[in-house]
């Protein structure tokens, strides 16, 4: 491990952050001006918290293929991929064609349309555990509905979740139970803690409606579950009659049958979101026929599930075209292999430079961390110095590469091998420019 914590280095890191921010401020005056206007009508100029960063967030004017152009005219290769929802890039011709042909037939019918069952069939044919599903407008809604169904189906209240997990704006556990969370009775375990989780499930078993989990923690930094952890979840839920809910809003792209196919896991319910709408708003929850049939409106005492835009024609048609005409299993495999190559190469680059970074993840989803120690749970990141990631973020932005401020990347189909190589070279160049920061300790 690199040692970087001398007082001199500490000051030097602060200075480097300040300089990187100052250069960003100088390069992006239009972003700054629009942010100031936005702050008059939106709290902090923001309507989606994750997009904010100091000193002010980047504002994008347009995108095409894998490129974003900001309002000051700088171009970036987009390695963020709209936090996984941008899997198809910014201008996939097949999806554009689907959207324009739908537009020709009009919007907002207030009735069933010809697309929703086709998209549902395209999804259920890929996900072995999803016999029936229903659409929502977001992954947040999908998870709320899945938990609601689990509570009704089991007649129980408690939901086991994990510290660091993100299941949407109303079920966020980055720092424990967020004050804005839905008022469910959450039991919070530690991700990848096999023995502790087994104990927790047994302790709360009779009151447990559901175990809700991400097969790989996404927002918390692309931390994959271990096979032992996943089997404790599956066995524990079965043993106590709780429902196992796999939140695959992010991880569904890790194989054409999702992370669950990759890991050989059969959850009772699964939630989806992000790219399945072809880049438009989307969510879905589904699973066992006996559970999902509770929503069949033709049956007595059917559960209600509403949503004006659940079957909106744009998302349904774009999603169907995306899944049936673009995202073949072979295309998805190639994308995940490209991501694996990027992650491995970044780790080699970090190690060669002796820099205090590492990248975790699976396939096309990865996260750079400001530590070179192993990361198997959010607790392993507690001591990482966020300033390192801030420097890397701004330096890469300046070199024309965009990722999340927290170090997250999600490859889109529009990213080429040459662009992957370009990013690896740019990271190498940043590390060499900044070498004085971690070699002087
Ligand atoms: N679950 C996971 C694992 C997510 O990553 C997200 C979004 N980042 C959500 C749920 C919520 O999805 P949405 O933003 O569509 O509400």
Helical percentage? 40-55%
- The number of strands is 16
Shape: globular
CATH architecture assignment name of the largest domain: 3-Layer(aba) Sandwich
Query: What is the arithmetic mean of pLDDT?
Result: 96
Query: Distance between termini?
Result: 13 Å
- Which molecules are bound besides the chains? 4'-deoxy-4'-aminopyridoxal-5'-phosphate
Instruction: Return the CATH class of the largest domain.
Output: Alpha Beta
Q: Strand order within the widest sheet? A: 4-12-11-10-7-5-6
Low-confidence stretches: none
Number of domains: 2
Number of helical elements: 14
Named CATH topology of the largest domain = Aspartate Aminotransferase, domain 2
Largest sheet: 7 strands, mixed
Write the layout of secondary structure elements.
Elements: H1 7-27, H2 29-38, E1 60-64, E2 67-70, E3 75-78, H3 93-104, H4 116-124, E4 132-136, H5 139-154, E5 158-162, E6 185-189, H6 194-204, E7 208-213, E8 216-217, E9 223-224, H7 227-240, E10 243-247, H8 258-263, E11 269-273, E12 283-287, H9 289-292, H10 313-326, H11 329-353, E13 358-362, E14 365-369, H12 386-398, E15 401-402, E16 408-410, H13 417-433, H14 435-439
Parallel strand pairs: 3-15, 5-6, 5-7, 7-10, 10-11
Antiparallel strand pairs: 1-2, 2-3, 4-12, 8-9, 11-12, 13-14, 14-16
The structure holds 4'-deoxy-4'-aminopyridoxal-5'-phosphate.
